[in-house]
Amino acid sequence: MLKTLNLSIAVLKMFTKEKPIWGGRELAMAMNMNHTNLYRILETFENNGFITKDPVTKKYSLGIALWEIGMNMYDSLNIDQLCMPVLEKLKDVTGETAIFTVLNGLEALTLLKAEPVNKVKFTVSRGSRSPLYVGASYRSMLAFLNEEQIAKVIDEPLTAYTNNTMTDANEIRAELEKIRACGYALSNSEYSVDVLALAMPIFNSEDQVVASITVSGPIYRFTEQRVPEVLEPLKEARNEIEGIIRRYHLNFN
Question: What Gene Ontology terms describe what this protein does at the molecular function level (predicted)?
Answer without folding.
Answer: DNA binding; DNA-binding transcription factor activity
